Each structure stands twice: as C-alpha cells, then as structure tokens.
Amino acid sequence: MSSVPTFAELMDSITEYLAPSMTRWWPNLPVERAEGIYLYTPDGRRYTDFTAGLAVANVGYGHPRVVQAAQEQTARMIHSALGLTHAESPLRLARKLIEVLPAGMDTLFFGNSGAEAMEAALKMARFVTKRPGFITCWGGFHGRLMATSAITSSKAVYRARYEPMLPGVHFTNFAYCYRCPVRLKPETCDIACLDSLTTVFERALPPSEVAAIILEPIQGESGYIVPPVEFLRRLRRICDTHGILLIFDEIQTGFGRTGRMFAAQTFDVQPDIMAIAKSIGSGFPLGAVVSRGALMQKWAAGAHSTTFGGNPVACSAGLATLEVIRDENLLANSRQMGDRLKRGVKRLQSRYPIIGDVRGVGLMVGMELIMPGKDKKPNPRAVTRVLESAFERGLITCSAGLHSHCIRLFPPLIVNAAQIDEALGILDESLAVAMQD
User: Fold this and answer.
1) 3-state DSSP call for residue 386?
2) Do 77 and 198 belong together in one domain?
3) 111: part of which helix (H) or strand (E)?
4) Contact call for residues 248 and 274 (beta carbons, < 8 A)
C-alpha cells in the first residue's frame, strides 16, 4: 500500500497533476491556514496578505460569523437547484443585497463566479435589447471564459490562440490619465479620450446596434486605474441618448473595496446592469448579475439557467459577510485605512523616483513603477524586485498593468493602522532594494 504524501511532497510534485495555468504563477505559497489578514505556512511562517485572496477576503479570512453561518447551513442543506427547490438563504441574501445595492437595482440572478456573472450580463443585454454589439474599454479585465475573454483587453495573453471569439465586440479608450491615450493633460482635456467612442459609432458599429457598453468603474488588472468621474457620467449620458445599456463590472470594486458598498455609489453613476462576485461570499463560490426589475423581467424564463448558482452554503456566508461589513463599520474603515495607505505610498513616491504614479480609492491602491528620467517607461523589473523583497519580509502583494509594471495593494477591509504602517515599512525596504539594481 502506498503511503499518503505529505503536504510538502504534494507541493514538490504539483506540476505533475495540475495544469500549468494553475501552477506557474507567483508565489505558489503553500498555506496551511488563514486568519484575518494573515496566511500561515506548514512551517509556521506568517505572511500578511495585501491581496485579500484576489479581492475575495474583504472581511478577512475565516471570520467567525462567516464560518458559523456556513457550518450551520451545511448541517441543514448543502445544495438547492433554484427553481426546482428554494432554500431560505438565497432568498434572504437577495433581499439583503437589494438593500445595499444602488437605488433601483432590485432584481438579481445568482451564479457561481465573476466570469459567470459577466457572461450572464452579456446574454441578458443582447436578449432584452435585441441588439448584437458590445463596446468595452481597452485595458479592461472581465474573466477568462470565451465571451468574457472577448471583452477583455488588459493583456493579449488572455486572448492568444482563442480567436475567433464572440463577434460584435469593439473597443474604446478608458480614461487612463497618467498615460493619456490621446496625450493630453487631464485638467484641460475635456475627456477627449471618449472621442474614440464616437469613432466606433461612426466607422464600425452604429449606436442602434449596440446592446451595451461594459467597463470596470476602476480598472483592476490594468493597475487600479481610476477615471475622472466625468468620464463615467458622460458614458451614462451617451447610453441614455442611444438606448444602450451601461454594464458595470463590480466584481473587484464591490462590497466596500472603494469605501462605499459599490463603486457606482462612490462615483454616483447608475449602471443598468451590474456584475458582482468575489467578496460577496468571503471565499465561497458565488456571483450575481443585478438589474432593475423592469429590465430583468424582459429576460424571459428559460433564457438563462444555473445548477449551482445561489448555493445555500455560499449564500449563508454571503449574508454573514454583509452583516460583518455593517456591524464592524468596514466601509468607514476602508476609507480611513485606504487614505492612510495612499498617503503612505505617496510619501514613498517622494523618496523613490521609480514610483511614477500613485492612485486608488478606498482600499484599492496602485503604484506604477517607471524608469526614472525615461518618459515614464514601464519598469517591470523593479516591480519583480519589490514583490520578491516584500515576500521575503512577509508581505504578499501582486503585479498588474500591461507590462506587469504596477503593484496593487488591496488588503482585507479589517486591516488596521498598525498593519498598514508595517506594510509601508516593508515596501520602503523593498523599494530601496529595487533602487539598488
């Protein structure tokens, strides 16, 4: 009889049984348990996670109330195929979500992930408008399924060797002010980057053929690019003028990440459809496409379906997550600690010329590293050195941007001032190392 392999032995042979796309990322850290903002390895080392499990653990890892809710629901009922049967927790979660969503967003469809939510949003938009086309923004990331890959353009690697993709997709500029796509100054440009949308309308896809314009209100994978609010407001007006649906991908920006429950509320811009996921269930597979009831009612019965969407255990965890965000005042903490983090990174910028830009809202802060004195040339090597050096010191962050030249800092919303300051100290030391190369 063969012996049971240890965790270390499993890690040593991981490439033998898991696909390369699951094993060739960074840092491939073996984790035995997680609590709060910390990850613990089998050898007892503790790491501070400033990625929140890729924006999933907004209330921290293993919050007792989330764990208890999931355990109690597991004992009662693990699975319910909605429509065939109805468990209580999905119904309660739907009603609670409506209380915290932007006004008027009062009907939803549950799925299992962000990519599923985005796929559902695209299907719904085509179905209810009877229009074929989509317009999305350069630099956006919306998932790795076939349709969501078709509207993703943060990096070509996500699309390579999968063409042809979903037809009818066209791209327009996003307001990336640090690297203005039309080479103007933000204070005087009058949102000229939106002229590219007019070009799409005039040369490629008339507005009457556009079902939806899709974007992340803050681009995540491209390096936490925050647009001027006027950019989003004008998009809203353009959609209203032409009967086009505006879809916000709030998979990463949702559930307090921006200091409000959703970025739509932070910017005070109302979408027609939202995709939400990631931190909705604190790690349990869950997502949803959300809209106003009058629009959702046009998406006829049988036009879309799910087997596992709205899983009772995941929805129980989601209910507990919303309660924790409310009871522990995490929206205010996101704003306060986000301000502290952003101010700290700006202080580092004044000392390290490789930091070209610092941006963010709430607890999603990005810094873009450049080659000093070389017209903002991206500096991915410096990013690698900072990530590696920070990891050696017990801090996990991750890269972003077209050239992997940005660093994203997005800890759980429970992070406190001492933990922010400790992370800033590690980043200070790590930037010093990068400057020496």
Assistant:
1) helix
2) yes
3) strand 107-111
4) yes
For residues 215 and 250, the answer to whether their CB atoms sit within 8 Å is no
pLDDT in tens, the chain (437 residues): 468 999 999 999 998 989 988 877 889 999 999 999 999 999 999 999 999 999 999 999 999 999 999 999 999 999 999 889 999 999 999 999 999 999 999 999 999 999 999 999 999 999 999 999 999 999 999 999 999 999 999 999 999 999 999 999 999 999 999 999 988 888 889 999 999 999 999 999 999 999 999 999 999 999 999 999 999 999 999 999 999 999 999 999 999 999 999 999 999 999 999 999 999 999 999 999 999 999 999 999 999 999 999 999 999 999 999 999 999 999 999 999 999 999 999 999 999 999 999 999 999 999 999 998 889 999 999 999 999 999 999 999 999 999 999 999 999 999 999 999 999 999 999 999 999 87
> 319 and 348 share a domain?
no
How does pLDDT run across 26-44, given as a tens digit for each residue? 899 999 999 999 999 999 9
Measured distance between the N- and C-terminal CA atoms of the chain, rounded to whole angstroms: 52
Dihedral angle sign, alpha carbons of residues 202, 203, 207, 212: negative
Gap between the Cα atoms of 371 and 351, Å rounded: 14
Q: Does one domain contain both 190 and 138?
A: yes
| 285 and 390 fall within a common domain | no
Q: 281 and 300: one domain? A: yes
- Do 372 and 303 lie in one domain? The reply is no
Decide: residue 249, CB within 10 A, 0-12 exposed, 13-18 middle, 19+ buried.
Answer: buried
- Describe the strand order of the beta sheet including 287-291 as a list of residue ranges: 107-111, 287-291, 273-276, 245-249, 210-215, 133-137, 169-172
Backbone torsions φ then ψ of 133, nearest 5 degrees: -95, 155
d(C-alpha 336, C-alpha 126), whole Å: 40
**Does residue 20 lie within any of the structural domains?**
yes
Which residues are 361's β-sheet partners?
364
Beta pairing partners, 409:
365
**Both tokens of residue 180?**
């203005």
The DSSP call for residue 301 is T
Boundary residue ending a domain (327, 350, 378): 327
**Residues 6+ away with beta carbon under 8 Å from 396:** 27, 29, 39, 47, 48, 49, 50, 51, 390
How far is Cα 224 from Cα 350, in angstroms, rounded to an integer? 20
Q: What are phi and psi of 109, to 5 degrees?
A: -125, 120
